[in-house]
Amino acid sequence: MADSIRISFLGGLGEIGRNCMAIEQGTGDDRAIVLIDCGLMFPDPDMHGIDLVLPDFTYLREHAPSIVGLVATHGHEDHVGGIQFLLRDTSGIGDRITDPLPIYGAELTLGLARNRIEEAGLISRCDMRPVSDGDVVEIGPFRIEFIPVTHSVPHAHAIAVHTGQGTILHSGDWKLDLTPVDGRRTDLGRLGQLTAGDGVRLLLADSTNAEEPGYAPSETNVGGVLRALFAEHAGRRIITASFASHLHRIQQIADAAVASGRKVATLGLSMKKNVRLGRELRVIDIPESALIDIEDLDDYAPGEICVISTGSQGEPMSALSLLARGENRFVKLSEHDTVILSSHAIPGNESAVNRVIDGLLKRGAQVVHSGVVDVHATGHAQADEIKTYLSLIGPEWFVPIHGEIRHKVSHARLAELMGIARTNGVVCVDGAVLELGDGGVVQ
Predict the structure, then answer these.
(1) What is the rounded (10 degree) CA torsion for 134, 135, 137, 142?
(2) pLDDT (tens digit, 9 = 90+) per residue, 201-260?
(3) How many Å apart are CA 209 and CA 361, to the nearest integer?
(4) In 10 A of CB 429, how many CB atoms?
């Protein structure tokens, strides 16, 4: 009989954000824990005085010496933004974790995580170990495989954890984009191969868009919309806002700008860093001749400029929020400006985003957002894609993750529709612990 596997959900099951789980085998001195992701979450409006919400590190504090590594599915803040807090935890977890902590992920994923870890002065506590698509690595007793998936940040992965109790598949954040910007599609072939033999014992799958019917639109659709907007607003200065990690969107914004004869300037430290990282890794291609420094905007006519800014979620101190309040030291808005919010508000951020839009309008700018024009495409699979995925994988056991309760319940209903027994679908919340043993999953 193989050792049972325990899965502890430390965040991400009941909210959009702070995704973190621990997969564990053994006890006592033989205990080995591998973490999948360690993200953060923006606070709800009623969380006064709170800047960020983190996973619950209590269990990790108790068993810090048993942590053998961390696997990052992709580079979004809700999946890697909490790593530096794990490393510097005030209760001493950072001192007792395997030092340096091995962190595995795509080179871009690690680069995006590194920015925050370096800012915290904790890079010496990390052993960054880049992986490529299809790589299989041994982390303690676990054999972990990195399977390409398409998402709104390049080089995202699903994670297959091969254990003595069978394969545990973590879907990562994903969609079935058949025409992605970089041509890198979700590897349905490899996912299908996992079903051979004993198949997938347990599937942990993204629930974000389980309530949304149909299929998520392709990211390349946004490029055509952006080009049309740039043509429509010729002669005006265009300021765009997007996630700094959404390098495919940044690429399409830059392509539209260059095609319309504009120079590109970045606004916001994280945007500047991520564009530089993306160009260094050849994930994005923006000609050097098209890039200018934000301080040189006044050297160009409004119709010759495109600014790519951070702050699409209305974060109070972000570049776009400062712009909306007239407090940005680099850019002052006027009636000659068009602001394009090429994003969609994360649940809970709607009020903050609306305040920013109001501020931009008060300063005379025209504002284009996803509520009026299709300037955004989700990075998460919708219901019909999810049904395809469930049909392909056909897991013995299923746990919906990454979402609020309503998203997970909707996902569980889709799973039942696709033939997964209701008794084998487990809807969990933060803090839940599952044990996968010879008899199946026990909560």
Answers:
(1) 0
(2) 999 999 999 999 999 999 999 999 999 999 999 999 999 999 999 999 999 999 999 999
(3) 31
(4) 11
**CB neighbour class for 108 (10 Å; exposed up to 12, middle 13-18, buried from 19):** buried
C-beta atoms surrounding 211 within 10 Å: 17
Selecting among 76, 369, 380, 407, the annotated active-site residue is: 380
Q: Which among 326, 325, 311 is positioned nearest to 42, based on CA atoms?
A: 311
Query: Can you tell me the distance from the alpha carbon of 404 to that of 409, in angstroms, rounded to the nearest whole number?
Result: 9
Q: Which helix (H) or strand (E) holds 398?
A: strand 397-401
* HSE-CB for 108 with a 13 A CA cutoff: 27
Instruction: Please confirm, yes or no, whether 380 is among the known catalytic residues.
Output: yes
Take residue 71 and report the two structure tokens written for it. 């696997």
Q: H or E element: which one contains 109?
A: helix 107-119
Cβ neighbors of 414 (< 8 A, separation 6 or more) are 210, 383, 386, 387, 390
Catalytic residue among 89, 206, 255, 337: 206
End-to-end, the C-alpha distance of the chain in Å comes to 20
